[in-house]
Design a protein that fits this description.
alpha+beta
Length: 466
């Protein structure tokens, strides 16, 4: 009889186990679209199994193999795929952020186009040719001043576009640094909760999902690396400098060129402050922050300086040749352009508005001579230098887009592999739920059969002959 009554426990264990299976399957389906959710699996355990294997082993407890019970509910995750995903996402964020900024810069340059610097240079050159053909004409003289003004405005607009991009990147960088510090503090707090859950024996799976999400976003921002601790939490380092150490988080800060008041082009650097000690983060970190730092330190200032060199060379050449000629009054020509040597592209202007001061003649009193204007029309050096600058930018943008496309494909591949491992398949979970339901029904049938058998034995045995 003892075996018969123990069968009730076996059936009861099967009922509880399969009910847990159905609960977990339904939870998986409910969280199928939850970001960062890793599907759960119930680990079944045999009740009263032999504790250790041995030849001719005999259990101490005669009640062996009394059914099943639900053990732990584990997350289906692969630590290697998770780490690879963080790395690829950090690299992808770096490349995509860089490509987006360069694309905006290319759009602001506006080449080729009818309103860009190249078109203004062509118009400026043809204006000198027109003046050489009609040196005494007021219209031609007025036209060359107008076209020079348009050239200065086109250059200034392009320069302002680069400067504005730098300012926008600074504002964005400040926001990202604030987000990094918030995420670091949240990760440290999550590490503490995971450790407490481990000590108390409670389910840490939701906390582990949160840990993975926080570390992934930190990797996207900084390109940093996460290292799993023995208690299940994550340490996080940026450029080899510890930002999160167990339950403690440092403060990530930007120094140098990212300050709003800092001159454009000032190098950007980062520090991590922990325990009262500030440590410099090595240059070359990835992620969105790394891309922004590179843009502010190298890419954008380099383009702006190259544009300034083209403008400086053009203005110096025009001023030198203009000073070698004579204006309509017979006076030696002065500077045609003015500019600030520290910012040629942003300050280029025509030096005068009086058309009589245009030195089109090669000698005094040559009101009908336009030979100096012909020499002023030679802007080929500036046009070649500018075209080289634009071509270089175009090649850089095209390369950045190609790298981003390739990296996105690699990132998607890793994410797909991770999704196959940790993602929820509604079809699979429905199959698991139906299987658990059928097992639950079978366990119920066993219990009802046992009940019927005992009812027969207890209430009907011995009634014959009464």
């Amino acid at each position: 009889m003892s075996g018969t009554f123990s069968s009730f426990n076996t059936a009861l264990g099967a009922l509880n186990y399969n009910r847990t299976l159905m609960d977990v399957a339904s939870s998986n389906i409910a969280n199928a679209t939850t970001p960062g959710y890793a599907r759960r699996r119930v680990e079944g355990e045999t009740v009263n199994s032999v504790g250790q294997a041995a030849l001719w082993s005999r259990p101490d407890d005669p009640m062996v193999g009394e059914g099943v019970q639900a053990g732990s509910v584990s997350r289906i995750a692969d630590a290697f795929l998770d780490a690879r995903s963080r790395y690829e996402h950090g690299t992808n964020s770096y490349l995509s952020t860089r490509a987006e900024s360069l694309t905006r810069l290319e759009t602001g340059v506006g080449e080729p186009g009818d309103t860009g610097v190249s078109a203004a240079l062509n118009s400026f050159r043809s204006g000198w040719h027109d003046l050489a053909n009609s040196p005494d004409g007021a219209a031609a003289r007025s036209q060359i001043i107008d076209r020079a003004t348009l050239l200065a405005e086109a250059v200034g607009a392009q320069n302002n576009s680069v400067v504005q991009e730098e300012k926008d990147q600074k504002v964005r960088l400040d926001a990202m640094v604030t987000e990094v510090n918030t995420l670091a503090a949240d990760l440290a707090s999550t590490n503490k909760s995971i450790a407490i859950a481990g000590f108390s024996g409670s389910d840490p799976n939701v906390l582990l999902d949160q840990r993975d999400q926080l570390s992934l976003r930190l990797a996207q921002l900084t390109g940093g690396t996460a290292t799993q601790r023995a208690d299940g939490g994550f340490d996080f380092a940026v450029g080899g400098v510890s930002l999160v150490d167990g339950m403690e988080s440092g403060t990530f800060a930007v120094v140098g060129g990212a300050a709003t008041s800092a001159p454009v082009g000032t190098p950007v650097a980062f520090t991590v402050t922990a325990g009262g000690t500030s440590t410099a983060v090595p240059a070359g970190i990835k992620g969105e922050i790394g891309a922004t730092a590179e843009l502010l330190t190298e890419t954008l200032p380099a383009y702006r300086e190259s544009l300034g060199e083209v403008v400086r060379a053009l203005a110096t050449q025009i001023n030198t040749q203009h000073a070698a000629g004579f204006d309509q009054n017979g006076d030696v020509g002065g500077d045609f352009f003015t500019f600030d040597p520290a910012d040629p592209a942003g300050t280029l202007k025509v030096a005068f508005s009086d058309t009589a001061k245009v030195a089109a003649s090669a000698y005094a009193g040559g009101g009908f001579d336009g030979s100096n204007a012909s020499k002023l029309a030679d802007t080929s050096a500036a046009e070649d230098a500018y075209q080289k600058l634009v071509n270089s930018l175009g090649s850089t943008v095209a390369s950045a887009k190609r790298l981003t496309t390739n990296q996105q494909a690699l990132t998607d591949q890793v994410d797909n592999a991770r999704e196959q491992m940790s993602g929820v398949s509604n079809d699979e979970e429905l199959v698991n739920m139906v299987a658990a339901q059928r097992s639950y029904e079978a366990a119920s049938r066993i219990m009802s059969t046992l009940d019927s058998m005992l009812d027969t034995l207890i209430n009907r045995t011995g009634l014959v002959g009464r």
